[in-house]
Amino acid sequence: MNNNNNLFKYIFAVVVAILVIYTMYIILHNKSEVTNTSLDQTSTLTNIQTDLRFAIAEMDTINPLISNNRNVQEITKIIYEPLVTLNENYKMEYCLADEIARTDDLNYVIKLKKGILWEDRSSFTAEDVVYTIELIKNGGFNSIYSSNLREVVEASVVDETTLNITLSQSVPFFEYNLTFPIMCKKHYEEEDFALSEKVPIGTGMFKISEISSNVIKLVQNEYYWNAERKPMATEISINLYGSIGEVYTAFKNGEIDILEVKSANIEDYIGTLGYNKIEYKSRDYDFLTINTENEILSEPAVRKALNLAIDKNNIVGTCLGKGYIASNFSLDMGFWLYTKDLNTGVDTEKAAQTLIDAGWERTSSGWQKREETGTKRLTFSITVSTDNESRVKVVETIKEQLESFGVPVSIRYLSGNNYVDAINNKNYEVAITGIRLGYSPNLFTFFGNGNIANYYNEEVAEIMQVVSNTNEENVLYEKYGRLYDIYLEEAPYIGLYRNTEMVVYNQSLVGNIKANAFNIYHNIEKWYRQ
Predict the structure, then answer these.
(1) pLDDT digits (tens, 9 = 90+) for 281-300
(2) How far apart are the C-alpha atoms of 11 and 5, rounded to whole Å?
(3) Which of 46, 215, 290, 460 is most buried, taking the most CB atoms under 10 A from its CB?
């Protein structure tokens, strides 16, 4: 009898243990699902707060076509919408446009989505798009979107949901320029847009409900067309501050949920606790451009060896510090077509072997190559602007690195217009320069006709021709992949570094939070506060 009782107790204890373990698994599994899946599954939580709090420092105007304020440009993306937008990998996605067809090098037909309403319930039409294009080009104000439409000579309405755009010259990946916000024509029919004090209306997921001296209130747009992106947040308070210092203080005090920052030493202003941060690569990219028509630098092996001998990470660490990251290619910013890691890193042994294989030998005075016409020495000058102290430090460090590798380098210091003229006229052997990149995969500045390195490769020229005439992803992947291979072997440019930017957000903000240089509010429809 005792044996039976003991057996019963043992079985009972095992069953209880199994039930406890199973219950704990279900609880943890459900908690994981709530954390990692879309936020419409969090509606059972009792601590959700559906109001969000953003900030604008030194606001000029909430009108996105006229404003020059970066905070305004970011925030208004959730109020006013473009024909196309870019995702977190800078891949183009249709927004108000339903289809864009390139009929020839200069002409595009744009079909719009049907049934979209402005927040006042009037219909969004092709007239609104044409009106916006004309405003940006001829509105009498210097819109930040003017460069998007520089080559547009005509925009005309075909019907209610169709328009044509004609360019003065072919623009590779022109569709990527159609990211400007569209304004409602009827809203301004009797107004001078540039002087109007009317608040623009939009087609986005939020609309402006109130503007005061210290806050702009947004609420959900009940006529928003995209049911799949209905936001969790019901209200957004955009607090207005006179300076970025006031914004930092407000964030530190927990009054702001998310903030884009440019200061590399942000911890000095907001501390180190109570928030998360996302650092991402910016569009500002510095590199060495090599005049490939120079007798010595025309050799791909020489350029490849120089690229391998320069320690970019050391340059960032010793010359630049926080807020910079080594980068060896212009699309190395999270771009969807950047499919290979081109940050080769320093490898002086491979650099030396590359030169040896190409007929160079190292002597006590450096690298030299014997030819029938005489002996060539590997040496050159680097041109730098004295107006840019950071680049001067970088070039001086590169000089030290290359000289330790056996390549004597001289530095050509130029100031002001002298430097600009040297770059424009390609009057240099090697020069350090930089560019603020666009959002498209356009590489014609680097590899097209008349590029700044005087670089020509027949296969690269063919690749440029193909990619400028296709939107087929498999073709683009193939051609860009091949381009990266050629770039590593021929090194017409030596990438150095790019700036980084950062988003900080309070730990109470929950959601699939992603950010890039185009938009810090990706996936905002999934955001909420705890």
Answers:
(1) 999 999 999 999 999 999 99
(2) 10
(3) 290
